[in-house]
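Anyone able to model this chain together with magnesium ion?
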Amino acid sequence: MQADFIMLRLGELTLKGRNRSRFEQAALRDVRQRLRPFGGIRILHEFGRIYIQLNGEPYAPIAERLGRVFGLHSFSPVYRTAADLEAIRRTALNVMRSLPSKPATFKVTVRRTDKNFPHNSMEMNHLVGGYVLRHIDGLKVDVHRPDIELHVEIRQQAAYIYSYVEKGLGGFPVGSNGKALLLLSGGIDSPVAGWLAMKRGLEIEAVHFHSYPYTSERAREKVIDLAKTLSRYTDSIRLHLVPFADLQTRLHQAYRGNLEITITRRMMFRIAEKLAVQRGAEALVTGESLGQVASQTLRSLDTIGRVVSMPILRPLIMMDKSEIMAVAERIETYPISILPYEDCCTLFVPKSPSTKPRLIQVEFVEKRLDWMAEGIEQAVRNTETIVVSEEAPQETDVFF
Ligand code: ATP
Ligand code: MG
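re: yes, here you go
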């Protein structure tokens, strides 16, 4: 027996009071977008609920996509029937009979939004529960820890019956909290940071610094694949590829001290902020995590972060590597991240990068680098932008 509807419950949105309808609209838009390939379905929005009428389209692939929509708290395959006692009883029994494994215990939970329905919720619990018990041998009621909870929702136009609740991702619909630019490396951390930012309702564009021709085409493909994997949680992601080799080489020729990484990263941040402003993004997002490497000590984070004035969001700042890896596995970026292609930052690594770079020292060194401002402008100008999406595997070149 195939469910005829999917009932969606919106997540934290309920907490947002007057913003609720805006969030609901955003969630609805995301659901529509993600389910575009399923031409037969109809999406209904009524009384704060979203229903998907399947019209024969398969549940499983739709559920898989719904599992990647931020803002959904949970969803259930539901069976719709007339708001009438006999119809409800028959459907309830069919639902119980078509479960993949036979439950030993169950309970019925009735919710009634139509107060004119002739029986109240308590009566309906007995009327439906008793009927099911009489028709299935060996089944028992357990109100505390049932194997199956059979939900019956009685509304004016129809009754909805379901037994299964699938957890959604929660969070906020992508874009409902603004837009940020993700610094996306080929590592494990930054894709996770991007995903967490999206979960909080940020629309993400990504920027990647590459050192082509010192780094390979494969390294580029890897970052595109990571962005593509993230795009499964939204529609598509705009990825900015910044040629960084020139700046790195020039810096390396001019300065070879233990502040090289600090200065390299300050150049990255300056470029990222310029791109963010061009793209209307209001924050930068990085995969930095406190203490992970020399450039992520408190002092380093501060010295590096001072070159930009927009907020730098660091979703992983207090997370352990194992926690970060668990998310990376879950969102399927991990196997891509561990591919062994070199990153631009491995190009010139000083023997002992400073863990306590002093701002005045860094500024002193940078003052002598008179080519830097123009180099940064040039990198921004030569940035290549592509739009990645799982739906349309072809890359589209887009120019500013
Ligand atoms: P990750 O696993 O995300 O690469 P990491 O632990 O290797 O992080 P770093 O290499 O120091 O740490 O980078 C810290 C952060 O700086 C990254 O999480 C990412 O946000 C940004 N970053 C580093 N390299 C690049 C790059 N080549 N392009 C874009 N952003 C980068
Ligand atoms: Mg890295």
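Confidence is low (pLDDT under 50) at residues 394-400.
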